Amino acid sequence: MEQAATVHGGEPNPLDSTGLCLLSLDGGGVRGLSTLYILKGLMDRLNQKRPNGTPKKKPCEVFDLIGGTSTGGLIAIMLGRLEMDVDECIAAYIQLMKKIFEKPSKWNLAASLFGNIEPRFDASKLEDAINQVISRCGANPTDLFNNQAERGCRVFVCSITQETKEIVRLRSYPEPGKLDIPATICQAARATSAATTFFEPVSIGARRFADGALGANNPVDEVEGEASDTWCPETGDLKPLVKCFVSIGTGNPGKKAMEDNLLKFMSKTLPELTTQTEQTEKRFIAKWRQHYDGKRYFRFNVEQGLQEVGLAEYQEQGLIEAATEGYLDHQAVVFQVRNCIRNLESKQNGTDTQFAIVIQLIQEYQRKLMLLEQWRGRARWHVPFDRNPKFTGREKLLNDLERRLQQHNHTTKIAVIGLGGVGKTQLVLELAHRVREQCAVFWIPVNSLANLQTAYREIAEKLRLPGCKENSTQILELVQTYLSDESIGPWLLVLDNADDVDLWTSPVSPDSGSKCLVDFLPRSTQGSIIFTTRNRKVTNDLVQDIVEVPEMDKSEATHLLKTTVATKELVEPDYQMVPILLEKLTYLPLAIVQAASYIRKNRVSFSAYNALLMDLEDEVMDLLGEEYRDDGRYRDISNAVAKTWIISFQQICRDDPLAAEYLSLMACVDPRDIPHAILVEGPLRRKETNAIGTLDAHSFIKKHSDSTTFDMHRLVHLATRGWLKGQERLSDWQSKAVTRLGKLLANTDQTNRTQWRVYIPHAQFAVADHTKGDNEIINLVQRCGACLDYDGRYGEAETMYWKALKYKEKVVGPEHPNTLASVNNLGSVLERQGRYEEAEAMHRRALEGYKKVLGPEHPSTLTSVSNLSSVLSRQGKYEEAEATHRRALEGSEKVLGPEHPDTLTSVNNLGSVLSSQGKYEEAKAMHRRGLEGYEKVLGPEHPSTLTSVNNLGLILSSQGNQGKYEEAEAMHQRALREQEKVLGLEHPSTLASVNNLGSVLSSQGKYEEAEGMHRRVLEGSEKGKYEEAEGMHRRVLEGSEKVLGPEHPSTLTSVSNLGSVLSSQGKYEEAEGTHRRGLEGYERVLGPEHPSTLTSVNNLGLVLSRQGKYEEAEALHRRALEGYKKVLGPEHPDTLTSGSNLRSLLEQKGQPL
């Protein structure tokens, strides 16, 4: 049995239970009996389906609308308005026809002198017969056809108005906006059946009506129109509302019906009546083709057996019944009747006139559901490559992989291992496309951590995971958490090119603690992970199943070579060489494709290419070079990929030496995002453009859309390096790369970061690749470290500074000024990471060295003094820091002058340590001097100037300076605005300004604004990324910030500030939790007596006292007071404030101090 349509999730579609059921009845005189016999066949079969003991249904209980013409109209009235069952209707119809047509009033058709046709039968007999039927049904012949009563079935009949010759519908129900013709039941019956040649027209009021068959003998169009007017008057879109539309004819009349016709009317009009009925049937089926094919529209009409039955031959009842029964027994009709019954039996309710609204809502829901499913389909497919139309063979491997993917009692992990170029990626790509309808597929390139993080972020954004704008570690956790949810269904995660062991076993980032990439793999019984790798060591601890990908078999390799060469004249003449050539290429797909491309481009034969391979027999090198070899993968055969590429390399050297130089240089930098400026000094000219085009034509590089950067294929990159190494030229090109990058990074400071940023990954690659410690490499390491430091990438900067220090210690000695400069840089970057003890040790070493080598008043010595003072201040060693800063300032003023940037830095640092000791007036004077000097010397937007602006803002808002908050807010606004412009949203200094602005806003009672600022900093500092933080300018900020980690002192300051603003808004519980977190962090990082720790103790005490937790609050306030006295002295403002807080608490408790 066919299933009913559903809306979604198996829920029944209301159309099947409540949709419109329409019945259309043709006209046809006594042949209307055929209509009734067909309808009887339908109703009998329908009622047989009903449970035993339930009453039989009548047509008026099944159909919502019945419309008819002529005798079909009479039947419609009896079935719908008088609510007869079919058997009652047949008996009444036979009696009606017998009485009407038993004896004509005129035996011959006559016409008046004016051509008017006179009727053959007595209309009074028709009226009497109709009235008797009406009376037998318990109605009164004078009852109105539309008596305003509510009925489940609506009935209308068609008639023709003599005045306009237009079709008129007489209805048993009111229709808003339509004229109601006040006909009685009898008048309506006479109006629809008053055939022109049979009966007089009927008068209703002032109008006269004749048989409707002349305009609509097959009334399906009228039924469609009436249903549209009733159920969808605004849209006219009826089809979606129709469950079942049944049209029943009166049989094919042949020519017998026309035998009595006289005059032009009879010779033309009545034949057109038959033709019109047939044409209407064909046209309507075509119009309703979807419903017809979907078993919702049915047309029943006896084609054979009724041709000899005239319109008035009532005595042919037996013939009509026999012909109809034969029609219903025909096999095709049996199926059609069965389908009609299956449709009608699910009808349960009448169709309300508001049903269209229900269907519209369902359609809208289905449309949204479809869009949602389409969206889900897109979101659950993240694969960067189209299906490879030339993919060949590998069916056994694919079937094996598909079988393994179906084993879901745990997270399935499979390693696809094979030699570089064997087709691992293409194999898994084909698998992904084959299973995409069965599960979600996500593809992650693992050739670098940066590319992996980018792919994870793209997946998270496609899936719209909350927090997808956070830093890379959080992104990995977000995707891991999502895929570990069993409810999302089956998925496949492909980790392509997982070749680097260190990538899987080293911490992902400083923010991730000890977590490695393997720790972020999702776990789900419905999930599968496939690694593709050249390195078996990567998979030792990662997977349960290993699938080794061998070379292609002969037939697969032959097919791949032929389809890739794709030139008949190159394949056929030399086809006997194919097996020999494929054997030399070791049936390796990448080697075959590369060789085929060479053959096609240069139009050489297979024999010629084979000869080239033979000529280079003694010069064959390892595919990827010794340092990239996969243990146990190489066999006792030549490395065909290397040979293939050597041929291409040598051809480029011969035909385009500049392209060969570019290829060699690119082999010594990072293979991704290579700017053309690394290759070309100045603009691209024709020669340079052609050289790059040569590499692109060999598919060795891929241009980005901007045409200013390129990617070099990873395997080509490694093979080129192996080739250079084999020729003992790799070291030379490494040095050239260092020299070129040194020139590009010659002018690096914080104001031109957009110019040097693109070169940093290549500089990192070059210095990691270089083993010599000459001046050029030392300078590049130093500049690369400085750029990373400027960018707030302190961990990477530290690595570079350590490298520079080791180089310098080895080359020039540990006490050389250049070596001491690296010691100093290393101390500064350690300080910025909150590693104060290590930083202090470095700065002391640098200072001692400078004093010994350069003397106590050398600018470098004074800078070192200043740096040491800063880290002492960070540790709360204020007195020593102040003394050291004053010494540095005096020396700088003497040696460099009062306006030198280094002197101004000393001024600024001294101001900060004075402020920390509560010496606000002197501190303010220092900061104003520093700011004015920086503006004059460096300009208003220099980062040092902006730091000075921030410092002055801090001192203006401090407690001991009467809180000049408006001026302080203006300062912080200025600093933040310019730092976002100059340093960008990614820099820690920008975060510090946001934090400072939040604090001064809080001091002014602007708590909501302040909370937004503090949350922005906290999210940025802790998570390293943030999305849409609301700043003072009320704009949405997008992007990500990599910063310092959850326990850096700056992060803890943000925690403390957020706790304070929450407390100010009365959010005491949240504030308490925030302060406890801050205090724990300070104690762990700075120690229990650091001033920042004591401030956190004080703040926690305040929020506890506001909650009535007096005992714990008192203990905290006493701890803070004792600590301040010890560290800052009894007269320091922070000490006095702490004492005041304790007194207030004790007063609340009624205790003395």
Verbal overview:
This protein is 56% helix and 7% strand. It has 49 helices and 17 strands. The strands form three sheets. Strands 1, 2, 3, 4, 5, 6, 7 and 8 form an eight-stranded mixed sheet that branches. A six-stranded parallel sheet has the order 9-11-12-13-10-14. β16 (701-703) and β17 (709-712) form a beta hairpin. The protein starts with 13 loop residues before the first helix and ends with a helix. Residues 1-10, 106-115, 255-271, 616-640 and 1020-1044 have low confidence and may be disordered.
Q: How are the secondary structure elements laid out?
A:
Blueprint: H1 14-18, E1 20-25, H2 32-48, H3 59-62, E2 65-69, H4 71-81, H5 86-101, H6 123-136, E3 154-161, E4 167-171, H7 185-193, E5 202-204, E6 207-211, H8 213-216, H9 220-231, E7 242-248, H10 263-287, H11 289-293, E8 297-300, H12 317-329, H13 331-344, H14 355-379, E9 381-382, H15 395-405, E10 412-417, H16 424-435, E11 440-445, H17 449-462, H18 472-483, E12 491-496, H19 501-505, E13 527-533, E14 545-548, H20 554-565, H21 568-571, H22 578-584, H23 589-602, H24 606-615, H25 640-655, H26 657-666, E15 674-675, H27 676-679, H28 686-697, E16 701-703, E17 709-712, H29 714-726, H30 730-744, H31 753-756, H32 760-769, H33 775-790, H34 794-811, H35 817-832, H36 836-853, H37 859-874, H38 878-895, H39 901-916, H40 920-937, H41 943-956, H42 965-982, H43 988-1003, H44 1007-1023, H45 1049-1064, H46 1068-1085, H47 1091-1106, H48 1110-1127, H49 1133-1149
Parallel strand pairs: 1-2, 1-7, 2-3, 7-8, 9-11, 10-13, 10-14, 11-12, 12-13
Antiparallel strand pairs: 3-4, 3-6, 5-6, 15-17, 16-17
Helix pairs in contact: 2-5, 2-12, 2-13, 4-7, 5-6, 6-7, 15-16, 17-18, 20-23, 22-24, 23-25, 25-26, 25-29, 26-28, 30-32, 30-33, 32-33, 33-34, 34-35, 35-36, 35-37, 36-37, 37-38, 37-39, 38-39, 39-40, 39-41, 40-41, 41-42, 41-43, 42-43, 43-44, 43-45, 44-45, 45-46, 45-47, 46-47, 47-48, 47-49, 48-49
